[in-house]
Structures
1.
Amino acid sequence: MSFARQRKLATESELYEYAVNALARRMRTIAELKRMLRRRVDTESEIGQTLVELVTRRLKDQGYLSDLKYAALYSALRRDNEKFGRRRVISDLKAKGVHGEVLDKAVESAFAEVDDQKQAREYLRRKRIERPRNQKQAARVFRQLVRAGFRSSTVFQILRKWDLDEEFLLALEQDLPESID
């Protein structure tokens, strides 16, 4: 089964309609939308690049496209629904093309009054992760919490409350790269 080749859009109105339809399906960052639009125009010509810039500028001016709104909403949803930590939200937003001051402002406001330890415990409850019975399970829980965006100091506080072997926790802490905490 072969798929039909996507037709290249040649006018601003066609590209604008395509962009509005894409934004109607779900909210997107400016970088995501530009990537989508570039696939639908002839990017080798200066006209195609200009059309992409014109359409994104028009959408920004009309309030349909805003990285700040996107980042704020995305941060709040990932915090409340997925129970992720700050670091995970930051890395996800960077992957979506949100950077700099916009990202910092949105994440800071979303996580301003969040207790990291409580958020990590809610994450564990959501994922149905129980108290580890051995060192292998404890290491697995540690990796899951770090991957979910929690600082290693928060993870160690939780593991210590579970009365795990202190020597194992110290060994785990020493094996950490400095960039995690």
Note: The chain has a mean pLDDT of 88.
2.
Amino acid sequence: MQQPEHTTRVEVSVIIPAYNASAFLAETIESVLAQSFAEFEVIVIDDGSTDDTLRLAQSYCRDTRVQCVSIKNSGVSAARNAGFARAKGSFVAFLDADDVWLPDNLLHKVNLLHTNTQAVLAHAPVENIEADSRRTGVINAGKSGRVLHELLSWKSTVVPGPSSILVRREAIEKVNGFDVQLSTAADQDIFFRLAELGEFVMHHEVLSLYRLHPNNMHRHIARMESDHIQVYRKAASRNAFGSEKFKRQCFAQLYLILAGSWWKNGGNKPRALRFMLKAVLVWPPSFMVLLRKFGR
């Protein structure tokens, strides 16, 4: 099949980290190639996959917009950084290898960042899909403006996820990319650091689809616990909270979330109770939250 002619200008670099993603990668890449905005490149980083991911990715390299690089398995943060090191665009998008974009995703977000010159990041609501790509109707939206306070307090969704964002290249450079020591909380960590730089802007319509399946990383609760505690300690070391009172409130909220994860999904009620106690000790009003929760 003859490939279409493409512009040589690259305004957006789309980075797709992929590890054993052969079941979904084709749909993901094709959703990028179908974008109404044309000035992009696609960089697939095969993170040492043991399945057919590399061969599948390479099959798309017939399209001059697509390149594929294989690295030793190093984790999603290292893979994203490896893609960014090769990126040419003024804007950068990070798309997980099991998620999908709708056709006008890049168009709307590029326009947002051109219009809002002070914003560092653009995003949009995300709809969940099943493993077989069926749309669920469940939508996660976010917030715009100076959102650091909302991110740190973790009481509502501010950014639905990495596949929903478009970021200015210089912003990624200023925060030194993703922390390679993190996996499940790498997104939260970079959102904190980007929010310290400036405003986020949001388009009002769903522009991407988040796939639900058993291998989603947030299901790994022990790693989630370690990563998120590390992220909050990093934020505290940068004085991101602004006050001791707010820091205690945020750490208590983190502990309550971890308690709920261990209680509901981790099957470890003693560990859940430990985090409930930590929440009350660091911020005593947390006791009323727990009382309302268990008093239902």
Note: The two ends are 62 Å apart (CA to CA).
3.
Amino acid sequence: MSLYLPRHFEATDRQMALDLMRSHPLGSLVSNDDDGFPFVTHVPLHLEERGEALVLHGHCARPNPHWQYLQARPQALVTFMGPQAYLSPKVYPDLVRVPTWNYLAVHCQVQARLLHAPEPKDRLLKKLIRDHDPAYEAQWRGLQADYQQRMLGGIVAFELEVVRLQCKVKMNQHRPEAFAGMRAAYAQQGDTGQALLRWMDRLGMGAPAPESAAPGGEAGHGTAG
């Protein structure tokens, strides 16, 4: 697993990576297909901490060949993309600047284990339901057993053990002269801007945003690489 990661954009606080993965759970699962070409499935994932170990739980449709690629080649990559936005050079107090793109991302090298039996698949589905629609769990439990079995038979579940974790927080944090302009710009950009303002607060990038401008939630000069 390789990620261009300049030191000033590397997040060494593990909790930042975990918060990003939980607040943006739609991961991109990347494996090689039988011809050696990257194959991607976008899938919601449940993050579980087992002591220091991290495990991602997910599933794909049985007709999706990705589970077969995981079975043949268990090592894979999962990426998560957090809030991101274009950054105009107008945020700087001078004109000798260029545009960039700010973003937060997590890359996980993983080792896959497939789950074929109905019971572990049902447990995995309940974890995802509790993450995104806990009220639906009672409805799922109330469905007829034969219908549940058909639905479970239509998916292949997997556990992805994280063997290497990288977190990139590219927030222009090495350009303090831009912080005031960034805050003013992001304050005008709706939910995405508010999310980025909260990350600026968390990173100590200038004066914290007032609560009215950045309610709860998740808490560059040059190219966007």
Note: The mean pLDDT is 91.
4.
Amino acid sequence: MATMSIRVDLAGEGRLGPGKVMLLERIAEHGSISAAGRSMAMSYRRAWELVADINASFRKPLVLSQPGGRHGGGAKLTPLGEELVAHYRAIETEARAAVEPRLRALEAAAAVRRS
């Protein structure tokens, strides 16, 4: 089945797409940026760079983090972060429904590759 992905280009240089949204969802799930990155086979450094990029793209942060140490650290989505993930997923769902017949047509016309 043909699929599609959506990337939203924000004012300035900010972008929000499936990878960053998945990272946000994994942060919410794991309560940790490093654990979220590991769950996506992503380095600790890359996960932190993406979070910094995400936070810089919006007027308020989407992720709040607390340094580790003896009492442990962690990260969580802000209410804005939760809201924007929900908006992005709604955009995906609505767009998929709108283009489903066209995706089927593309799939039907696609060449089947043999290994």
Note: The beta strands are 8-9, 15-16, 63-66, 74-77.
